[in-house]
Design goal:
7 helices; globular; Arc Repressor Mutant, subunit A; 2 domains; three-stranded antiparallel sheet; Double Stranded RNA Binding Domain
């Protein structure tokens, strides 16, 4: 496995509290379910029948709901290389501009990438404002901010192990072989 959850202590010092698996304000009391993935441990939260966040790290309270089990199964299938499009109700909290950016991200097909400028042409704003909206994406992977690249390099990534996590996700989508099978 490329990433390990044992690096959580380092992550908490290196990453902003709202981006690396720490509970976001208002999500601590929501139903939450965690899973192990090649990109690190993830915790999914729901509210009012919709997924509202995916955070890096293992949640302190686990509560299985029908929707969270479905989301966990779809994330496992994604990491197994057998799911290319998520089919889940989503309700990310954000500004109207962030919502437009996140909708543009969801339109990027599996295995493809777009530049920050490409997304700005669809959602409005600038490459910088698209990058800021990406950094505030509360449902990474399902809203695929990892598929957005800078014009001349890979760009940034605020989740998990940063760029290493972005590279894992891009490699998974570029490979015809499931990521976990490649090491076997």
């Amino acid at each position: 496995m490329l990433l390990h959850s044992s690096r959580r202590a380092l992550d908490s010092r290196r990453c902003p509290a709202l981006r690396c698996g720490a509970a976001k304000p208002g999500t601590a009391n929501l139903p939450q379910l965690s899973l192990h993935t090649p990109a690190g441990d993830l915790s999914i939260a729901e509210e009012d029948g919709a997924i509202v966040s995916i955070e890096w790290g293992w949640g302190s309270r686990q509560e299985e709901t029908r929707l969270l089990r479905r989301a966990r199964a779809q994330l496992h299938a994604y990491f197994d290389g057998t799911l290319r499009a998520f089919d889940l109700p989503l309700a990310p909290a954000g500004t109207p501009y962030q919502q437009r950016v996140w909708q543009a991200l969801r339109a990027i097909p599996y295995g493809e990438t777009r530049s920050y400028i490409d997304i700005a042409r669809v959602a409005g704003g600038s490459a910088r404002s698209v990058g800021q909206a990406n950094g505030r994406n509360p449902i990474p992977i399902i809203i695929p901010c990892h598929r957005v690249l800078a014009a001349s390099h890979i760009g940034g990534y605020s989740g998990g192990e940063g760029l290493a996590t972005k590279r894992v996700l891009l490699a998974l989508e570029a490979s015809p072989t499931p990521l976990h099978s490649a090491a076997a």
